[in-house]
Design a protein that fits this description.
- The strands form two sheets. Strands 1-10-9-6-2-3-5 form a seven-stranded parallel β-sheet, with helices on one face. Strands 4-8-7 form a three-stranded antiparallel β-sheet.
- The protein has one domain: Rossmann fold.
- It is built from six helices and ten strands, in the order E-H-E-H-E-E-H-E-H-E-E-E-H-E-H-E.
- The mean pLDDT is about 95.
- It is globular and about 45 Å long.
- By secondary structure, it is α/β, with parallel strands linked by helices.
- The chain starts with a strand and ends in an 8-residue tail after the last strand.
- Bound molecules: 6-phosphogluconic acid.
- 6-phosphogluconic acid binds next to loops.
- The site of 6-phosphogluconic acid (6PG) has 15 residues, from loops.
Length: about 240
């Protein structure tokens, strides 16, 4: 990992969520001041759910310019929206159904389609939204990522060839927990974001985090996330950071 990295450790999961929600609000404001809109990609998993619920609560809800906010997904499990494993389904319950974001500014990944077709469709959606010329990649204002104990991030799993994808924006992959077909943004997309925020909590992540920071090699997919000249924030709780020096 290179670039402009910051590690922020919070006492517990609630304070971690508060910090993440504050970052969401700040980045939304800055992006809208700069370019009139805020484009964010969010992850699944359990860690960000506390932040998602906070987004729909005060003082955050009314401070976020939802009418200029556009929401995309980092990854999705190929299950129906009402399946408990659906990232979109969870986000709807946690905040999307409770905040005034216009429905046509929410871009779930098409988890209901056959995986390859879903990946192609979402890639098209990105190309149109960002008005991309051939071979270009979108630049998100903010991307939230998580990390698994195996060092995966998004749905980019260790040893899987999707980690080496250089051209496509979205790919289909099978793996993870739950071990299902998934859609995921690729590294060239993730690494171009203006700001990346990792949200990591719990003692079960501590040993993996230690390896991530101590070993200067790309052993885990999470180590292939580079801030380049942009911002990479590691938001950790005390438990997940417990083995870091
Ligand atoms: C997904 C993810 C995945 C997640 C990590 C951490 O499975 O949908 O986006 O990359 O962020 O597995 O998940 P937890 O927060 O549940 O530990």
């Amino acid at each position: 990992m290179t670039g402009n990295q910051k590690i922020i450790v919070k006492e517990n999961a609630a304070m971690l969520a508060q910090k993440a929600t504050t970052l969401f609000r700040q980045t939304a404001k800055e992006s809208i001041d700069r370019q009139g809109r805020f484009v964010v990609a969010i992850s699944g998993g359990s860690t960000p759910r506390r932040m998602y619920r906070m987004l729909a609560e005060e003082p955050y809800d009314s401070a976020i310019p939802w009418d200029k906010t556009y929401i995309f997904w980092v990854d999705e499990r190929c299950v129906p929206e009402n399946d408990p494993a659906s990232n979109f389904g969870a986000a709807k319950k946690d905040f999307l159904n409770r905040v005034p974001v216009p429905g046509d500014q929410v871009y779930p990944m098409p988890g209901e389609l056959p995986p390859k077709q879903g990946a192609q469709k979402y890639q098209k959606v990105l190309i149109e939204f960002f008005n991309l010329k051939d071979g270009r990649f979108p630049i998100f204002d903010l991307i939230f990522l998580g990390m698994g104990t195996d060092g995966h991030t998004a749905s980019l799993f260790p040893g899987h060839r999707t980690v080496d994808e250089k051209k496509r924006l979205v790919v289909a992959v099978k793996g993870g927990d739950p071990d299902v077909n998934r859609l995921t943004l690729t590294l060239p997309v993730l690494n171009r974001a203006r700001q990346i925020v990792f949200l990591i909590s719990g003692k079960e992540k501590a040993a993996t985090l230690k390896t991530v920071f101590e070993k200067d090699q790309s052993r885990f997919p999470v180590q292939k996330i580079h801030a380049l000249d942009k911002e990479l924030n590691w938001l950790l709780d005390r438990e997940s950071a417990s083995l870091l020096k």
